[in-house]
Amino acid sequence: MFDKRTGRTGDTGKRITVSIHADDELGGRRLVRQLRSLPGVHVVRGDEVPSVDLLLMGRHDADAPGTLRELARGGRAPLVVVADDLGESELMAVAEYGVRAVLWGHRLTPGRLSRAVHEAAGCCPKLPMVTALV
Fold it and tell me: Is the pTM of this model over 0.85?
């Protein structure tokens, strides 16, 4: 079971696999490093189907909206977005695509990342999108 207070999973033995989609290579590596530090979370590459897709949307990332649409329409896994900056219209679009959580890049902590990934993977009770924004 996931403990919201500590941001850690208990002895459920469930392994959450996460696939990262990022045009920013440094930002992507930062996310990989943070995810690998979380217990019960494994970063996958390539054709392996993940439990959660994680999209990094940079401020100057022109391809991110297309990647967001592709991942959301593909429906292979729940989607979490880490964004540098989103305006009101972009935030509404993200919500319409069924994104499970939006994390602000400048406020990203291991606890927030862990909570968002675990909630998207179905390890925790689902929260409305408004309360999932952290």
Answer: no
